[in-house]
Design a protein that fits this description.
Mean pLDDT: 76
Shape: globular
Helix content: 40-55%
Structural class: mainly alpha
Low-confidence stretches: 22-31
Radius of gyration: 23 Å
Length: 268
Amino acid sequence: GLHIYAYMALFCFIIILLLVIIEIHSKRNHDKCIHKNEYRFTQNTNTESLALKEALRRYERLHAMSIEREDPIVAMERVSHSEKDIKSKYVYVYASASGLGNRLLGIVSAFLLSLLTDRVMVLYSPHYNFGELLCSPFPNSTWLLPREAKIPEEKSTVMYSFEMLDPIITAEIIIVKDAEQYFLTDFFSKPHFIDRLHQLFPSRNVATVLLKYLIHPSDRIWADVLETFDQREKHALTVGLQIRDPVIDATSALSCLPKLPDNSHIFV
C-alpha cells in the first residue's frame, strides 16, 4: 500500500512540475517577437562593432536587473523627495502625442544617452500604446511604464538639454520630455562622449544600428505587414506614403487617390 501512495505522490509531483514548465514556456513564447527573431538571421551583424555588442549585452543585464529589483516610478518618487537611495540611474522618456516617426527617433536618441551614461531607459507613453506596436528590445524585461501610472512631480530631476552636460552626467534621473526630436547628433559635439562614440560606432552609422536593435514591430503588426506584402499584385509598383488625417480627408474629398477597400491595411 505504501508503494502505491509513493508512486501516486511521485506522479502528482511530475504533473505539477510539467505544468510549471509549460506555464513558464508559454510566458516566454508570449514574450517572443517573431520579427526580432527572424530579422536577426537576415540582418548584417557586421554593422555592430565588437565594442557595441559588448555594451548592448551589458546594458541588457543592467536593464533586466534594475527593473526586477526596483519599480522605476518608485525610484522617481524617491528622487522627487530628495532621497538618494535608488538602486539605478534612469532616463525617463515621455513620448509625446506627435507622429510615430518623430517619437521613434526621440526614443533612439534617448537610448544612446542611456548607453553613454550607464542608465536604464524607460518609456512613458500615456497617449500611445507602444506595447501594441513594438516588442521590448531587451530580453526578459520591459521598457514600458504603465500608461495609467501617476508620474511624480519633476523635482530633483534633470531635463535633457544640449547645453547642460555636467548636470546630465551626475544626475540620478534624466527626463527627456516630449521625445519627438532627433538629438542623437548632439553627443558628437561633446568632447566628453567623443572617444566612446568612436569606439562604439567606428563607421558613425549610429542611427541605423540603434534603429535595427531597438525597433521591432509586435507580432500583430508584423503579421499585418506580411499579409499586406503577400496580397500585393506580383508586378505592381508599391508606393509608401506618410499621410496625416487632413491629407486623407483632402484626397478623399477631391478624389485624388483611388478609394481604398474596407479591408485595406493603413499604418499611421
